[in-house]
Amino acid sequence: MSTDPTHIQKKILNLPPDEQKEVIDFIEFLEQKNNKEKREKTSMTFEWEGGLKDLKEKYTSVELQHKINEWRIEDAFD
Predict the structure, then answer these.
(1) C-alpha to C-alpha distances, 33 to 20, 30, 36, 38, 49, nearest whole angstrom
(2) Alpha carbons 13 and 31: distance in angstroms, whole number
(3) What is the DSSP string of 46-63?
(4) Which domain holds residue 25?
(5) How many CB atoms lie within 10 A of CB 68?
């Protein structure tokens, strides 16, 4: 079985459109699976630890959680 990109592309183009979509879906599944495996292999770091300590006096932990969610929502729409 050849892994040459040109050979693979020809094989995909010879498929009917609905099967081409299945190939794309499968490729995306494999990419997600590989990305998940890579994320799981990396060790956790706590570089962010203490990054919000200046807000400790201003908010309770629950209020801070709500505030962080507000900031995330604001960032998503910026």
Answers:
(1) 20, 5, 5, 9, 29
(2) 21
(3) -TTTTTTGGGTTTS-HHH
(4) 5-41
(5) 13
Is the domain of 63 the same as that of 37? no
Type of residue numbered 10: K
Number of domains in the chain: 2
Tokens 């794309």 found at: 24
R_g over Cα of the chain: 23
The mean of the pLDDT values for the chain is 86
- Residue 12 vs residue 54, higher pLDDT: 12
Q: Is the pTM of this model over 0.85?
A: no
24 and 53 housed in the same domain: no
DSSP 8-state symbol, 15: S
Please provide the size of the chain in residues.
Answer: 78
Write out pLDDT tens, residues 27-60. 999 999 888 777 766 666 777 788 878 877 888 8
